[in-house]
Design a protein that fits this description.
With 397 residues, the protein is α+β, with helices and mostly antiparallel strands. It has 9 helices and 11 strands.
Length: 397
């Protein structure tokens, strides 16, 4: 091996080691304030216990990188493939999602031991002769996957503690930066024409962002900022949750079945609107950006305002002029494949493509999104009824 080539590989190893350990430490930092009991709770099917997130993200590195590529690697516990496999049919049987809260074992301490074991072996792998340039694409996916679960950890921890009758604080000090807006919304105009959307250039992206392509857009206007609590409270006070004409049929069924009256974490106590935050229960700051609403609520509010939600193409075209990154913003676009999309072979092909049904696209990022984990081409997606993500509304017409 030439000295210059060897030097390049060593630099590459140092980069991946730093990134790997920095991202792995952040997951544990998020869980640092938790009591042991907090790690195990699963209030609803959409929320996973924090200890499951810690185990699953570790399982990803063990299953997809160490087992096939690190010769002689011994799995920490053969049962963990059944416990921490999320949805990969290629990998085999798994605990169904609704039963994750029944996993009193493995214990929290055993899962942290599992993380230490895999981190040690990943360090050996990255510093050893088995690590090859062709492994970096999968390693990058694993790191971005862990960052996705860091955001899910924050959202799930908030749901767990926010549904505790005592409304306990996650941290006494502010954990997320508050986002406020006091100025009136301004509508930005865009001309009709042919535009291009989709990822291009260097750097990481998920496969669902690929396939840069042209789209024709009619003339449209889009708000320069998301909606605030004050603006949404006007919708509530006007009887928005009691008037079917603003809602999709499925959304109106959701309102009636859940008896919804307000966004998630809002509580009207003695005629004072309170909100559960990660610092505990507080009186609502009306100038904060609205958060934790589902697609049904977003669409109904837009209809009440005589407007609509933007399509994901409109959002991306306008993104360079928008104030974004504070809330995941609902779009009026179904989550579908871009032209030319092809699912990868094997288990990795199950990462995004299999979910392109019954989901709506979210664009932007939120205060819970890890640093460096947002792009204007990032296509997040969720079912229309879910509120627990850090979601907001941007109006269009």
């Amino acid at each position: 091996m030439k000295e210059s080539s060897k030097h390049t590989i060593e630099e590459n190893t140092d980069y991946w080691l730093r990134r790997y350990h920095d991202i792995r430490k952040q997951s544990e930092h998020i869980c640092e304030p938790l009591q042991t009991e907090d790690y195990v709770v699963q209030p609803v099917v959409d929320v996973s216990p924090p200890k499951w997130h810690l185990g699953h993200s570790t399982w990803f590195f063990e299953t997809f990188i160490l087992v096939p590529n690190y010769y002689g690697y011994k799995v920490f516990d053969p049962q963990y493939n059944f416990v921490f496999n999320s949805y990969y049919e290629t990998i085999g049987a798994r605990v169904i999602r609704t039963d994750r809260g029944n996993l009193s074992r493995p214990s929290v301490s055993e899962i942290y031991e599992y993380r230490r074991y895999v981190d040690e072996k990943m360090t050996e792998f990255l510093q050893g002769d088995f690590f090859r340039p062709e492994h970096t694409e999968l390693l990058e996916l694993g790191l971005n996957h862990e960052q996705q679960h860091q955001e899910l950890l924050v959202t799930d921890i908030k749901f767990i503690l926010g549904h505790n009758p005592l409304f306990p604080a996650y941290r006494k000090e502010s954990f997320l930066k508050s986002s406020t807006a006091s100025e009136e919304i301004k509508m930005l105009k865009f001309s009709e024409g042919v535009y291009e959307i989709g990822f291009q250039g260097k750097g990481f992206c998920f496969d669902n962002e690929l396939g840069r392509h042209k789209v024709y857009l009619n003339e449209f206007e889009i708000a320069d900022r998301p909606v605030t609590n004050r603006e949404y409270l006007e919708f509530i006070k006007s009887g928005g949750y009691h008037d079917f004409k603003y809602w999709h049929a499925e959304g109106w069924d959701w309102v009636k079945n859940t008896k919804a009256e307000s966004p998630l974490y809002w509580h009207n106590i003695d005629d004072i609107w309170m909100i559960y935050t990660l610092e505990g229960l507080k009186e609502i700051n009306l100038d904060d950006l609205l958060c934790h609403i589902n697609f049904f609520e977003a669409s109904a509010f837009a209809a009440w305002k005589g407007m609509r939600l933007p399509t994901e193409a409109e959002w991306e075209v306008a993104s360079g002029l928008l104030n974004w990154g504070k809330r995941w913003e609902w779009t009026n676009s179904a989550y579908l494949a871009y032209p030319g999309y092809k699912r990868a072979s094997g288990a990795v092909g199950e990462y995004n493509g299999k979910f392109m049904i019954n989901q709506m696209v979210l664009r932007g990022a939120s205060e819970a999104t890890p640093e460096g984990h947002s792009r204007n081409t990032y296509r997040n997606f969720f079912p229309a009824n879910l509120q627990w993500q850090f979601t907001g509304i941007r109006l269009a017409k």
